[in-house]
Design brief:
Radius of gyration: 22 Å
Strand order of the largest sheet: 1-2-6-3-5-4
CATH superfamily of the largest domain: Metalloenzyme, LuxS/M16 peptidase-like
Helix content: 40-55%
Oligomer: single chain
CATH class of the largest domain: Alpha Beta
CATH topology of the largest domain: Cytochrome Bc1 Complex, Chain A, domain 1
Strand content: 15-25%
Number of helices: 15
């Protein structure tokens, strides 16, 4: 079900029979792509600080109260939204909502807590920087969207985070945490009417959206490649990709099928060729990422320095082979069944269901049933997949990111 508050807050819920849990969250349509270069990482730091104390509860009290309800309480920041959510027994709906709404509406941003939490975030940034897998994807984003906020790392940069002040965080929250930017999503054993009353009693105080400057246009040209050398690693990590299309695109379901067929399962072409037949890699997969106005696709692999060129060549060989020769017998049917199974099994979790209806509202502004999703997958034809592969396999539009041993 879907409903609106007078200040623009949207509420989407899904009642699930046969469970005793509720997954409930508040999302704000703000993330790293909504930041300026001088405040890169502020969305993520705000998310951390909202758990560090309110007018009613300090950080310890927030933890003790949620734990005493047997609840899982957490938050995360992405490029396009920030989410605060909990999973708990249905009998604790009112108490858990009181904690969640208090966190998002009444944070104190105490200076002493802020300085401590900056240290935590900086350690998170350093940990991410130590990971060649994360580094190679950061570089790929910088290649595909040079200078654009969508390429900024979610956690920001260490020097920028150090300089952020309490006033910076309060001003950013006031600007972005507004009614028209808020979506409350819930899935599980719940009453929509009861939750709506709770939301109305708490989030009516959020102001309407204060217009930010429009997002800058994407740069016309990409950077063809970036390389970085790191100590203490033995493998070469490679990610290559290109820009594609947005979430709300007629090509999304053919892309999901193509991704599964190409590198999204153990029987996929890349896994079978590079790992099973050639023994060049332990890890290889393809990916599609959809945003509100753009998307990316690509492939990641890790291999030895001596086999880097061969592994990359084989990936493009498989891409070209698919575009040139099409599918083999039963490949499409098996791929679609694998994808449908994966999509359906994810719905065993109320957290997954909650995130699903949140994204549907965010990107599509409507509810999409699992039956509609499965039917859309079934309707993908061999021609849909092969035509999309032919359109996407343009090597000139690919960027390559490499992190290798020093």
């Amino acid at each position: 079900m879907k409903s609106h508050l007078g200040n623009g807050v949207r509420l989407v819920t899904e009642k699930v029979d046969g469970v005793r849990s509720v997954s409930l969250g508040v999302a704000f349509l703000t993330g790293s792509r909504h930041e300026s270069k001088e405040e890169s990482g502020i969305s993520h730091l705000v998310e951390h600080m909202l758990f560090k104390g309110t007018k009613k509860r300090d950080a310890f009290r927030i933890a003790v109260e949620s734990d005493s309800l047997g609840a899982e309480l957490n938050g995360f920041t992405s490029k396009e939204f920030t989410y605060y959510y909990a999973r708990f027994l249905d009998m604790h709906l009112e108490r858990m909502w009181d904690i969640l709404s208090d966190i998002v509406c009444n944070p104190l941003f105490r200076k002493d807590e802020l300085e401590r939490e900056k240290g935590v975030v900086i350690e998170e940034i350093r940990s991410s920087s130590d990971s060649p897998e994360e580094e190679v994807f950061r570089q790929l984003s910088e290649c595909l969207f040079p200078g654009h906020p969508i390429a900024y790392p979610v956690a920001g940069g260490e020097e920028v985070v150090k300089k952020l002040t309490r006033e910076d965080l309060m001003n950013f929250k006031e600007r972005r945490y507004c009614g028209e930017n808020a979506i409350v999503a819930a899935s599980g054993r719940l009453s929509n009417d009861k939750l709506k009353k709770l939301v109305e009693g708490s989030l009516q105080s959020l102001s309407h959206l204060k217009k930010d400057a429009p997002s800058p246009p994407f740069p016309q040209k990409i950077i063809k490649g970036k390389e970085k050398k790191k100590k203490d690693i033995s493998q070469v990590h490679v990610a290559f990709g290109r820009r594609t299309f947005k979430y709300d695109s007629p090509y999304r379901y053919p892309a999901l099928v193509l991704n599964t067929l190409l590198g999204g399962s153990m029987s996929s072409r890349l896994f079978q060729r590079l790992r099973e037949r050639e023994g060049l890699v332990y890890s290889v997969f393809s990916f599609f990422q959809f945003y509100i106005d753009v998307g990316t696709m690509g492939v990641y692999l890790a291999t030895s320095p001596s086999t880097k060129k061969k592994a990359i060549d084989l990936v493009f060989e498989e891409l070209k082979k698919l575009a040139r020769d099409g599918l083999v017998r039963e490949e499409l049917a098996n791929t679609k069944e694998h994808l449908k199974g994966k999509l359906t099994l994810e719905l065993e979790s109320t957290v997954s269901r909650m995130v699903r209806i949140l994204k549907e509202e965010m990107y599509l502004q409507r509810e999409v049933s699992i039956d509609e999703t499965l039917e859309a997958v079934d309707n993908v034809s061999e021609d849909d997949v092969v035509s999309l592969a032919r359109e996407l396999v343009d090597i000139d539009k690919f960027a390559v990111s490499v992190v290798e041993p020093e």
